[in-house]
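W.,

You were right to be curious about this one. When I first looked at the sequence I had no strong expectations either way, so I just let the prediction run and decided to look at it fresh. Below is the sequence, 200 residues in total, followed by the output.
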Amino acid sequence: MDEKQLVALARSGDFDAFARLIEANKQKMYGLVRRLAGNEQDAEDIMQESFLKAIDKIDQFRGEAAFGTWLSSIALNEARALYSKKRQSDLKPIEEYLPGSGSHGDDHQDSLRLFDWQYPHKMMESAELKSAVDEAIAELPYMYREAFLLRYIEELPVREVAELTNQSVASAKSRILRARLALRDRLSQVFEDRYGKKVS
């Protein structure tokens, strides 16, 4: 049975069909939610609330997007609701991450310290790097963590990131860029402290 058939059954009240839809998307969804939440307890709370909301709102699902995308949008709303209660500081302006800003003191050393990170998702292939990246992502203010994960872990186009986060495309691009720069800056410090050398 394909997804459309399962959705039709779920909308008619077939809970087994709904459970199959959830099971097909649960693992990927949990990966996103766990990184958004930064801890297992909050992640489990978000997952549970998301599934309950999905059951309540299944009649509203029109099939214009994949069921997994719709489910993820519910999870994002639940995560935002949770983290809107927690005040978090903003990231530095983009200019302060760039060499020549003078924000770190020695611009030449900083330009060497900041390692090139053209493809962040490739870093996830190494267990050690994955751990460091996960820790750094968890330190990001929520709205940047959300944008970064949707773009580079879920590998969504910027347009879809903008839609899911209720932002303009320009705003989504800005959040993604600032998250990348902040993570690059943070990971440069981590590896320099850990190994006593610059990472390139």
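Here's what jumped out at me. Residues 3-83 form a domain with the Rna Polymerase Sigma Factor; Chain: A fold (CATH 1.10.1740.10). And, maybe more interesting for your project: The chain has two domains: 3-83, 94-195.

Coffee later to discuss?

I.
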